[in-house]
Design brief:
Strand content: 25-35%
Oligomer: single chain
Number of helices: 4
Structural class: alpha+beta
Shape: globular
Largest sheet: 7 strands, mixed
Length: about 140
């Protein structure tokens, strides 16, 4: 795996322009993070805890790389540049990015073909605390946009 992917994760979501339906991608491993789940005992950092020494990868590079890994068509995903969260893990800080699908309808069949499911926030309530906090922050950003 590319070195920056060891320090990065991406959450994918669909948001209906008219209905405001927001669905997050849950991958076959159960996680909402790609390319791999967050390690156990991870915690999302608060604003006053953020590491200023972290060199961040541009969101578009993370999105493009994950899109290629998943075998998705080009330009299907767009980075949400207003979302960049840091997660403290036993192995160091991981930066989590957010990207949305650029299609009008939810890509249910495309995601099913990849072994993924589109889930509402409430359907993901059994995820680990760090993932839930990341999803909550993503949902707030999407609803305020």
């Amino acid at each position: 795996m590319t070195d920056f992917l060891n320090r990065s994760r991406l959450i994918l979501y669909y948001n209906g322009a008219i209905s405001a339906l927001t669905l997050f991608v849950q991958h076959p491993d159960g996680s909402v993070c790609k390319p791999s789940p967050l390690p156990a005992r991870s915690s999302v950092l608060e604003e006053d805890e953020l590491s200023l020494t972290i060199v961040h990868t541009p969101p578009a590079i993370v999105v493009s790389t994950i899109s290629n890994i998943m075998g998705l068509p080009a330009n299907l995903l767009q980075a949400d540049t207003g979302y960049r969260e840091q997660v403290d893990t036993p192995d160091g800080i991981i930066t989590v990015y957010l990207a949305h699908f650029t299609m009008l309808d939810p890509p249910r069949q495309l995601m099913a073909d990849k072994g993924c499911q589109l889930r509402t926030l409430t359907e993901l309530r059994n995820r680990p605390p760090a993932e839930l906090e990341l999803l909550r922050r993503a949902y707030v950003l999407v609803m305020e946009s």
